[in-house]
Amino acid sequence: MKKVGIVTFHDGINYGAFMQVFSLQRALETQGYDVDVIHYKQVKFWFKEYVHFLKMNGRLLSNYKKISKFERLQKKHLNLTSFSFDINKLTKGYDAIYFGSDEIWNINNPGFGFNPVYFGRGIDCRLIAYAPSFGATQIDDENINRVKEDLLNFDKISVRDTNSYKIVEKLTNQVPLIVADPTLLVEQKSLLVEPEQVEEYLLVYASSQLTVEQISQIKTYAEINNLLIISIGYKHAFAHQNLLDLDPFEWQGYIKYAQCVVTTMFHGTLFSLIYNRPLSIILTPYREAKFSTVIESCKLQSALWKGGALSFNSSYIFPQKLKEESFEFLKL
Questions:
Q1: 10-residue stretch averages of pLDDT, the chain, 332 residues long
Q2: Are residues 192 and 253 in contact, defined by beta-carbon separation less than 8 angstroms?
Q3: What's the predicted TM-score (pTM) here?
Q4: What is the CATH number of domain 3-186+323-330?
């Protein structure tokens, strides 16, 4: 049995981060591989991340409870190696290391900035990129050439959005494959926790950057349709309920049973698609680049909120060919 590792943002207190590595691990296991999640993090990233999450929403106790839930699920469901701040101690003896998905190639990530580890630097085995994203980093970024030689060391490269595709193509003169986010490759329902919520609700999964107009339209739609407004993950004063310490499987449950979903988040969009929920996407400039391919491939253009009255789209098309090509790419 071939032994492979995954290097990604595996332990962030973030629903999408957990679900993408959990799904990639399962997808690789379906290929018959012995899979480990490399339990590495840069020292300054580890410190900044925990300080940020403990302070978020101004709710220290609730945030600590949420962190504890995530850590329990990470230990239970991820095949974690021992932990180290030194990547070289953790990556010996593997047939291949898969890098991705998530924004591990965003060299301007506000959490940790540039870390060459996520580009495979110094790792001596077969390197495969599965669906990483450069996030908001653009092709004309003045620092983009610093990863050119690293990308050329990869045996295979795939990405999850057209912005990342263009950057890789420019730097390597090679055409990467665009693949599906791993959450779209595997069954997601078996571990879902059904919410105790009885009343019908409009679900908001959005950062705190909503405009006055957007908030007004959400409130109006909920009032007209006699829906509660429930916000998950982020605190919003306009919501009837703010659920800030859900674990990833509880989070899924609230998406599945919502009457409709308003989100600014990439994985909020994907899981609304997975559970076929009426969806309205508020596209922020920071996340616009990484949304491009999923909007195009799943025909989500009509779900984009462009101002005016809030409306929802629930007619999605997920291309089976993309899923097949993605599984084929995973093979060594």
A1: 95 91 98 97 70 62 82 96 93 96 89 87 95 92 94 97 95 96 94 92 92 96 98 95 94 97 95 94 82 85 89 82 95 94
A2: yes
A3: 0.93
A4: 3.40.50
